[in-house]
Records
---
Amino acid sequence: MHIVVCVKQVPDTKIIKINPKTNTLDRRSAPAILNPYDAHAVQAAVKVKEEYGGLISVLSMGPPQAVEIIKKSVEIGADGGYLITDRAFAGADTLATSYALFKALDRISKDKPIDLIICGKHAIDGDTGQVGPGIARRLDIPPITNVIEISDIDLKIRKVRVKRKIINGYERIETGLPCLLTVEKEINPIEYSPLPNMIRAARYQPVIWAVSDLDEVDRTQLGLKGSPTIVGKMFTPPKPEGGHVLEGTPSEQAGQIVEVLLKNKELFSVN
Amino acid sequence: MPEKFDVIVVGAGPAGTSCAYTCAKNGLKVLQIERGEYPGSKNVMGGVLYRKQMEEIIPEFWKEAPLERPVVEQRFWMMDKESAVSFGYKGLEWAKEPYNNFTVLRAKFDQWFAGKGVEAGVLLINETVATECIVEDGKVVGIKTDRPDGEVYADVTVLADGVNSLLGKQLGFHKEFRPDEVALTVMEVINLSKDKINDRFNLEDNQGCTIEIFGDSTKGNLGTAFIYTNKESINIGVGTTLSSMISSRMKPYDLLDYLKNHPMVRNLIGGGEPAEYLAHLIPEGGYHSVPKVAGNGVLVVGDAAQLVNAIHREGSNMAMASGRMAAETIMEAHQAGDFSHEFLNAYRDKLYDSFIIKDLKKYKNATHVFEHNPQYFKEYVPMLNRAASKFFTVDGSSKKTKQKQIIKTMTSEKGTIKLIKDVYKAWKAVK
């Protein structure tokens, strides 16, 4: 079983500052980290491997320093990884990114066919969640988003059963392999990596590919050229105003809340 | 089967990295373990890096290392409540190669330095705590870490795990510190524009200034405060022995606030934006506190070996030199295939034969004398300020009369014999 996890290097948005003049992220102000959802995706792959065996490869597109997140993935338990890095990829939106990753996956699958692709549900810098489904569409395989459990994999009949989060509940889905899953953090906690993994990661050198290493690439679909997205305006959302702060003891406050809710029934109507 | 290395270095501060780098550069298989998220993330010092000992490890490091400013001026203040007697030296020869020392931000510098180690072949593992040494037949053969399958082996384990060396304690090399053997230093990095720093400290872009402050900076307790200029920030901090802090019931952050609001200090940092707050223990026990530094399969370097000269605020340079000496001994041991205590003791000899232990020996009683004679910081510093004020105030009386009056106040306040005794005692402690 060959699992590929797509990972992205992102600025740590917990610490990042926003340039008040340009309204863009000041990327120097925050360290670059493995997108937290992708870390859970790698951990999910490790769990699958523990149960069903196989090989875990990670794939990333980014600047040369993104090798760090591939090493980080090896710490978590990936067997190896690929970084596609090239000036031609620069400025890519989700459409161009999913095309580039699709081409890289195509190349990887020529060496060893891919059974399962796992992505984080979205990257914390862009929050779009489009790249995973974009890859699945191009590969013509089923995408299942917001997965919170990989319940069962049957390699004989090539089926996977998962649980996915939806508003007000969850659904259980069965689909055929290969497929693409995007995962929520709830899928698993990140485990403390064993020391041998840490040592292997410190030594590990990922495979690095440029555009020329990929097959039959349509360069017009790459990078800025292949990105139809236009950012019209960026702004910091204004701080919410108004509101009402309740006072009194906790039980008095609870009483006040009930009163407010009873007066404004639309506040808790279910759509 | 756990892996075996030639050397395991515990800690990625200046001592550990100097040792790891030197060993790897000479072809040894080195594993370096760091508990922080990255090297430097948990390391604290006032911020002065000396050129000489760093250069002995990486020649011309100033061409690529992330340094702040070369120090061209060193000032010393004997500070009272609303005054200070100061002296210092400024020399522009320090603004050029080969320089004397630099201000640095440790989070950046240590990361760079450890990166040089990795380039040389060191395997660096972050976010991992070495919990104990593995001892077999009286010999240290490796370490256990807090990770699953966390055992790893080596011919030599180097303890560069800092002031509170847990592994050194585990091996019985040193005991828990007494509160008078360690200082607690707290500091802030305050962001301030380059132009403001240059104006306030009379500097140009590539020039730095250090100020060491005694007296009221610690409310008369044994310790010092410091103000160092970075490129676009200022390090300001204060430290006293833990014992003074306990006996005077001071809180370290209160002391730092007191310093920041002191009329002699506040305008230097005014309008700045606090960016970081750091605190750390500093080993200041000196010569008498240096523990056993070599054993079967194990060496101790840097703060873990208590190598700090508190009087001259030197520590990182001693750390680096000790790391390099340890590496040299390990290479000799590797060649001889002998990692016994007897062989590794060559490191101890190197240490004791170098400026490190010689300097610590010179001041071996200084901390003790000042600790037990609080009059130096509590009484003499204010007295010196009063004398200077009197001498420099133009009030119509002759200079000769003023001198007489000053000597008279001093001797009547303290008594001539006591005064002479104190001067002698202080001189003896630092001679």
Note: Chain A has a mean pLDDT of 91.
---
Amino acid sequence: MERGAATASLAGLKARIARIGGSGKARGTVLPFGISEIDRRLPGGGVSFGALHEIVGSGLGAMHGAAAALFVAGVLARTKGPVLWCLNTHDLFAPALSSVGLHPDRVIYAEPDDEKTVLFCMEEGLRHAGLAGVVGEVSRLSMTASRRLQLAAEASGVIAFVIRHWRNAAAADAFRQLTAATTRWRITAAPSSPLPVAGIGRPRWLVALIRSRAGECGEWEVEACDAQDRLALPADLADRSAQAEDGRRSAAA
Amino acid sequence: MGDAAPPPERPLVIAARDGRRRIVAAADRAALALGVRPGLTLTQARVRVPGLRIEAADPAADAEALGRLAAWALRRYSPLVALDPPDGLLIDVTGATHLFGGETPLLEDIRARLAAACIGARIGLADTVGAAHALARFAPGPLTVAAVGGVNSALAPLPIAALRLDPECVDRLRRLGFETIAELEAVPRAPMALRFGAEPGYRLDQAFGRVAEPIEPIGPPGTIHVRQAFAEPISAPETLAHSIGRLVAALCPLLEAQGLGARRLDLLFHRVDSDVQAIRVGMANPVRDVRHLARLLTDGLETVDPGFGVEVMTLAAPIAEPMPYRQRAMLHEDEASGLSALIDTLANRIGADKLYRAASVESDLPERSVKIIAPLDPPTGRDWPKHWPRPSRLLSPPEPVETLALLPDHPPVHFTWRGVRRHVKRADGPERVFGEWWKRDEELVAVRDYFRIEDESGERFWIYRAGDGENAATGSQRWFLHGIFG
């Protein structure tokens, strides 16, 4: 009984803090993954609207951001409305985005010449509440730049993603800098689901939430987005990865 | 010219009076080929070419036609267009090239459109009026662009006649052995001024940009425009931005009265030193929203140098299109019009060609299966077929890789890309893609075999072999990496 009252007052306090700290009209609305193992770690139970999320790859993905782009497209596929995708490299292949459910009619590409203008385009798009989401691909993201994006996203309630990838190892150092992004994810390509015959099964990713404001971190091995834009926990691994997480958490505590 | 135009194969000259003689003022291509040059007396020309067609010169009509051409250039290319009689136009393309994707595409566009109207044109582009004038008339090619800061090297080999001196002066200089501008530029100025007056030195200075040469832009003919003069010259950015707001607020009711929306706006800043600076913005859809237009113009303000101050600002809408009246949504902003405001802002900053949507094309070749359409085009509703997975990053061009593979149908055992050797753990394929024989002859038998492969760490790649692995005619049988899956 006493414990129930404590929980209720805690929830009330949390709501009050959210009201004081929250400036965005869309704050509190989130987009769940539909995988309880991931969603319960995220504040609010999903990827929050009106916030900046940072996605990086590792290994080869750090240079090309192939899995990161699909991860972002898969999240945006579950929203409605146009998406602005800003990049200054001409290597994104639109049919792949469509294969995870992001229809080509929804995506407007902006391809300026330099990264500074990519950030300008993102910020301009984020001021525009009619968009479902804004994506930018850059190698460097300073604290100031990310703060601007985060504030613009908070004001309009538009979800923002920055895909970080770099062309050479030297630029990777810039990644160690802190940014104002609400979450930071690392998406790594993992060996695909085994098939009984020769061939490549459903692709898998190692999805790591490596920074989360007011939330916990975690790492999961998931099956990549399919045409229904859903991630899934692999059946044969579901138990094991949950255990691995618990071990990690206790080690960190 | 329409139906009244004479057949092009019959030689035509334009006759003018020179004192008491009638001479050839201009000749068409057919007449020039037969040896009739401007300056020849009409009698001599008639003797050389029997059946020569002769039209009397009409300078007034020429000037009027030039004015019409200038108005067209003003509407299409740049807010700053001046007449350069008798046969030239000066177009200041500063800040207007991004709408066409660069300087050379803009010039190509001018030339192609004039050619379509049967007007032969020679075009020069340079940092100064004098140099552009000279390049257009005396450069070897019909279309010459002097690089920024490259006026000196571009002008040096041109003849001195390119300097806009009077013919008598050119004649006297030539008699002394001066042929090119470089030679004239090299001699000391004082003795030259003593002998030929200030004119050659002044023209040289103009051509090389050592003295300013403001152009007198023609006014917008018959377009909706507003003008504001200031009692004191203004130059502070905030003041300029404030004035932009007032001009736009004055223009929009004029547009509304005629049921129009602006597709293009030209804002001219007339400076106290009689220089004119301009901002030109384009809109994807007709617009007469004060806030939207003021925002677009204010964004362009950083390119404007107010110098010692601006005394007059004019705002014109050279392209305005009918815009239906619409009831404004009561509670929330109209989404489509909001999106077009965003597109306009971005397009004016990064260029309209850098903003696009991808649409599907029915082609098996991956690099041809995507086409680019304008961001605000109506939805196509079409999608790519989903039976084969496609990589999220496509390398362009495909990069050659070293492989070891069994022929003809097996995926590689390992491959080396960018110096890293990767063992193939799993593979899918081949997906055979045939060349599009209706596009090029070489593609008649060309074949690509695509494989999706996965290495030990789980990275997935898209590689192909050019050729079917058996027949040498189908391709080089070399392996390429074309894309990376997530």
Note: Residues 224-346 of chain B form a domain with the Dna Ligase; domain 1 fold (CATH 3.30.1490.100).
